[in-house]
């Protein structure tokens, strides 16, 4: 497996921290299950398919031991097409299965241990956590990073979901709500009482939402500031630009246009607006023509004083010139008075010859290029750059 973002480990070895995606479906009153012995189905077929697509996109799937005991999941990719695509990419048919267990006491006959094209690891490893010491998820992430896990899906249960959010270890939350209530005070809630960093002062970014049949789906991105502790500097720029790249995965894909994500932060590094190519936004006109940076800026009042200290993060160089509308994204950025732009990839001379970065610099805007994330922008735009 290939490695991703660098994180310091033991002050010496540099490995890559996994991108952590939490996934759960709850009832309208926030429950993951009821208290009956039989398995409660919250998802419908479309939502189960979303979960399967997510499983197929990750290197590892993590659950708590309670979920193994209660639901006995196999944690495999169900779709034969998706399994074949993984194998064609040189990956195992299903991701690595990871179980967090304070006691290590698990039934060896559990479905998660069945050898069906996927390996299973139980944490704590031998000699650690004896006597039920809670497993430290941060240590687990470090160890998974050393094993080459770049993208981790966390499927539950409640205490694991709560811990990953409360410890600021989640980058993304894929959250679905089924249209019924459980109403049992003893039923497990997805997110228990905790001091969550994702508070009203640090709202998550709604990257996508929609109906999957009668289930409502939302995809949130988390600005995990605890990772490097900073709101400024190169680490913060990489973290926020990475969010813009992840946001670009929400773009409706069209064959003749780029998928771009943009994030605007205020002078303290707090996210104040987001946009992605072809995002629906009332008032801009035909959404097919909407550009990421244009959408992110259109959501803000042009007189917003924060714009004068803002940074705009964009996965692709702001466009200039533009055919589909009179003003390019470079024009919008200059008109907004934004003093700083951070981008991952200069626009390849494929659809147009773009000079957005040079025009911005010539106008006095600080332009920072972080080509480390260029490969991910290329991957999102593999329909044009593959
Ligand atoms: N920076 C940026 N953000 C987007 O969201 C985009 N779709 C693009 N696309 C580029 O913008 C130029 C003109 O686009 P139109 O076809 O006129 O809308 C061209 O260079 C595209 O590649 N760029």
From TrEMBL:
Gene Ontology molecular functions: 5-amino-6-(5-phosphoribosylamino)uracil reductase activity; diaminohydroxyphosphoribosylaminopyrimidine deaminase activity
Keyword presence, Oxidoreductase: yes
Gene3D superfamilies: Cytidine Deaminase, domain 2, Dihydrofolate Reductase, subunit A
PANTHER family: 2,5-DIAMINO-6-RIBOSYLAMINO-4(3H)-PYRIMIDINONE 5'-PHOSPHATE REDUCTASE, DIHYDROFOLATE REDUCTASE FAMILY PROTEIN (AFU_ORTHOLOGUE AFUA_8G06820)
SUPFAM superfamilies xrefs: Cytidine deaminase-like, Dihydrofolate reductase-like
Keyword field: NADP, Oxidoreductase
Family, similarity comment: In the N-terminal section; belongs to the cytidine and deoxycytidylate deaminase family.
Catalytic activity: 5-amino-6-(5-phospho-D-ribitylamino)uracil + NADP(+) = 5-amino-6-(5-phospho-D-ribosylamino)uracil + NADPH + H(+); 2,5-diamino-6-hydroxy-4-(5-phosphoribosylamino)-pyrimidine + H2O + H(+) = 5-amino-6-(5-phospho-D-ribosylamino)uracil + NH4(+)
Biological processes per GO annotation: riboflavin biosynthetic process
Function: Converts 2,5-diamino-6-(ribosylamino)-4(3h)-pyrimidinone 5'-phosphate into 5-amino-6-(ribosylamino)-2,4(1h,3h)-pyrimidinedione 5'-phosphate.
EC number: 3.5.4.26
Annotated CMP/dCMP-type deaminase domain residues: 235-367
Pathway membership: Cofactor biosynthesis; riboflavin biosynthesis; 5-amino-6-(D-ribitylamino)uracil from GTP: step 2/4
Name the record gives this protein: Riboflavin biosynthesis protein RibD
Pfam family, one: RibD_C
Main EC class the enzyme belongs to: hydrolase
Organism: Actinocrinis puniceicyclus
InterPro entries to which the protein is assigned, alphabetical: CMP_dCMP_dom, Cytidine_deaminase-like, DHFR-like_dom_sf, RibDG_C, Riboflavin_Biosynth_HTPR
């Amino acid at each position: 497996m290939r490695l991703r973002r660098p994180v310091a480990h033991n002050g010496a070895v540099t490995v890559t921290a996994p991108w952590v995606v939490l996934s759960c479906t709850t009832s309208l009153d926030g429950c993951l299950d009821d208290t009956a012995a039989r398995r409660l189905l919250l998802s419908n077929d479309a939502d189960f398919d979303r979960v399967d697509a997510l499983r197929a996109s990750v290197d590892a799937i993590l659950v708590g031991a309670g979920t193994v005991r209660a639901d006995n999941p196999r944690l495999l990719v169900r779709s034969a097409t998706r399994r074949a695509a993984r194998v064609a990419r040189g990956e195992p048919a299903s991701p690595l299965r990871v179980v967090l267990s304070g006691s290590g006491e698990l039934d060896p006959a559990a479905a998660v241990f069945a050898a069906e094209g996927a390996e299973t690891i139980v944490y704590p490893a031998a000699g650690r956590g004896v006597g039920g010491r809670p497993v430290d998820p941060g240590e687990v992430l470090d160890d998974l990073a050393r094993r080459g896990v770049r993208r981790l899906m966390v499927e539950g249960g409640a205490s694991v979901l709560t811990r990953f959010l409360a410890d600021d270890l989640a980058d993304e939350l894929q959250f679905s709500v089924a249209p019924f209530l459980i109403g049992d005070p003893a039923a497990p809630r997805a997110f228990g009482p905790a001091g969550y960093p994702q508070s009203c002062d640090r709202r998550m970014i709604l990257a996508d939402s929609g109906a999957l049949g009668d289930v409502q789906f939302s995809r949130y991105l988390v600005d995990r500031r605890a990772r490097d502790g900073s709101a400024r500097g190169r680490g913060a720029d990489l973290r926020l630009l990475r969010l813009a790249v992840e946001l670009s995965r929400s773009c409706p894909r069209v064959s003749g246009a780029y998928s771009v994500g943009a994030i605007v932060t205020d002078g303290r590094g707090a996210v104040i607006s987001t946009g992605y190519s072809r995002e629906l936004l009332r008032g801009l006109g035909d959404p097919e023509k909407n550009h990421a940076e244009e959408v992110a800026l259109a959501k803000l009042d042009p007189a917003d004083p924060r714009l004068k200290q803002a940074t705009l993060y964009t996965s692709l160089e702001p466009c200039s010139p533009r055919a589909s509308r009179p003003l390019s994204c470079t024009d919008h950025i200059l008109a907004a008075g934004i003093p700083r732009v951070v981008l991952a990839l200069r626009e390849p001379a494929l659809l147009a010859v773009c000079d957005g970065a040079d025009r911005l610099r010539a106008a006095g805007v600080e332009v920072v290029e972080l080509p480390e994330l260029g490969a991910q922008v290329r991957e999102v735009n593999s329909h044009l750059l593959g």
